[in-house]
Amino acid sequence: MSKGKTRFGLLGLCVTAAMALMAFGGASAAQAAGCTPTTPTAKPCWMLNNANVTADTTVTATIFKDVLTLLLSKALSTTVAIDCTEQGLVGGTALLQPEGKATGKLEFKNCTTELGGAVKTGCKPVEPIIAAGTLEIALHEGEAVVKATNGLSPFAEIGFNEKTCALTNPTPIKGTGWILDCIPDPETELTEHLIIEGKLAAEMLGGLKFGAEPASIDGSVIIKEVKVGTSAALTFSILAD
Fold it and tell me: Where do the domains of the chain lie?
């Protein structure tokens, strides 16, 4: 862990992620004009079984921890680590929209907090931690990425017990999240994708903040079992501009 940085066991957000998370393909049998695997430069698209999302589509998906996701920042002049071992979509669903946009909420449970490398039970976060945001497929430095934002609002606010913890209550997670396929080939149709933070985009265009401090995310998660209604697990991918 970097000196003066915070470990934070939330996706996104690899969230927002995750708000995490959350780079899913959605279903539609129709093909959007100009947006197919053979013409990926036309406009961004969510893809499922090589079909484009051309209307609002509700999907379900499962998020599996691969390497514990850590939000790195600083607080109280020391390292802080908030590690959550359980995460998933609130209600089990996310909404995929045309032109590579999506919305959803993530919840995080079974969380612990470390200060200076030691677990502090008095700083255990209030659970569940709920993270919400909007996703948009983008192209940065030739790579397809997913941009996560929440307007002027934070992705999440993490509550702490003011009587037993010196961390700001609540501490907002805000800014911009960047999600990158770890294969790395987000345009390949697969039944699962391994995702991480798009660090280059975060460094160049601005990333997350833990309170007022810059933050970044380490770790990775697997998105799989993407379904529409009672369908079987579907292959999914993204196409960027």
Answer: 7-239
